[in-house]
Every structure is written in C-alpha cells, then in structure tokens.
Specification:
It contains four helices and no strands. The chain is mainly α.
C-alpha cells in the first residue's frame, strides 16, 4: 500500500500571535530580571532589568501596572504614577 500525498497551492491558515502568551513571556523575562536585580544588586543587573523592561513596554507586551512594578523595584516610582493607580481604584 502506498500513501498518497496531496500537494496544494492553497494558502495555509495562520493564526495571529497569542497576545496573552506574549504578555506572559514578557512577564517571565522581566520577572527573572527583577529577581536577579534584587539578589545581586549590581549595576549590570539593573541595566539588564531596565533594558528588558523598556523593550517589552515599547513592544506593548507589558501593562502599565507591570511597568509600575518595575519602577517600584528600581526606586523610580513617582508621585504621578501613584496618583494614577489611586484614580484607577476609585
């Protein structure tokens, strides 16, 4: 018995990237960088955290509140960010 192989010139269906999965991957990468920074407290770990967080935020893979967590860890948590957080919970 021989298997039959069908060759089609039809365009194959593609699925759009799963945005939730992208967000989870970004959170994992940034979370690992946060952990590394909190353990090591080196300038290199801080630079790494800042760069992966800014890259993920620029690509739209981090939420505003994810960015607030990073800012809080880095000590750059501002008064205006706190006001925004309070307004969103009101």
């Amino acid at each position: 018995m021989q298997a039959q192989h069908f060759i089609s010139s039809e365009t194959k269906a593609t699925t759009p990237p799963d945005l939730h999965a992208r967000h989870l991957v970004a959170v994992r990468i940034v979370g690992t960088a946060i952990f590394e920074y909190q353990v090591r407290k080196t300038p290199a770990a801080r630079i790494h955290l800042e760069s992966v967080a800014s890259m993920a935020q620029a690509q739209g893979d981090l939420t505003y509140f994810d960015a607030l967590v990073v800012a809080h860890v880095l000590g750059t948590y501002t008064h205006s960010a706190k006001q925004h957080q309070e307004m969103s919970h009101a």
